[in-house]
Amino acid sequence: MPTGGTASMAPMAAGAMFPMSAQPSVPGVTPPAVTSGSVVTPTGMTLPAPPREESYVENILRMNLGKVGTFYMTYENNSEWNAKIFKGVVEAAGRDHIVLSDPTTGKRFLLLTLNLDYVTFDEPLNYTLPFGSAGGLPTR
Predict the structure, then answer these.
(1) What does the alpha-carbon distance between residue 2 and residue 63 come to, in Å, rounded to a whole number?
(2) Which residue among 68, 85, 87, 88 has the highest number of C-beta atoms inside a 10 angstrom radius?
(3) Is residue 88 a contact partner of residue 96, using CB atoms and an 8 Å limit?
(4) What count of other Cβ atoms lies within 10 Å of the Cβ of residue 88?
(5) What is the pTM of this model?
(6) Can you tell me the distance from the alpha carbon of 47 to that of 40, in angstroms, rounded to the nearest whole number?
(7) CA 125, 89, 82 angle in degrees (round to 5)?
(8) pLDDT per residue over 91-113, tens digit each?
(9) Is the Cβ–Cβ distance between 72 and 85 less than 8 Å?
């Protein structure tokens, strides 16, 4: 390494590390641009990143904002009530919560997904997977 500074390091075959300036290069050949998560084969061919499935409950609920659902919740170790059912319009959904509103009373509920058992809807759901399979759920 040169004195008085640090050289950037880049991974090489078999886990060895070499300074960027020591990377092998071929005159007149530009390395391929690689997007995050992509793979470059030994021949230099870039393969796309494998798709990530993100069909979490929060995302499915977000695809169905404005629809009325019935939410079945369980509260362990609760002496007053162990299970409770909430029916309302899905207003928002986050990683750990769901916001419902009761259209008859205007009352709003903030429910924790930790307690969620399942949800039913009386209408078809919007459900498009982010990795290429498009379309809604089949209806009966």
Answers:
(1) 55
(2) 88
(3) no
(4) 21
(5) 0.56
(6) 6
(7) 100
(8) 999 999 999 999 999 999 999 99
(9) yes
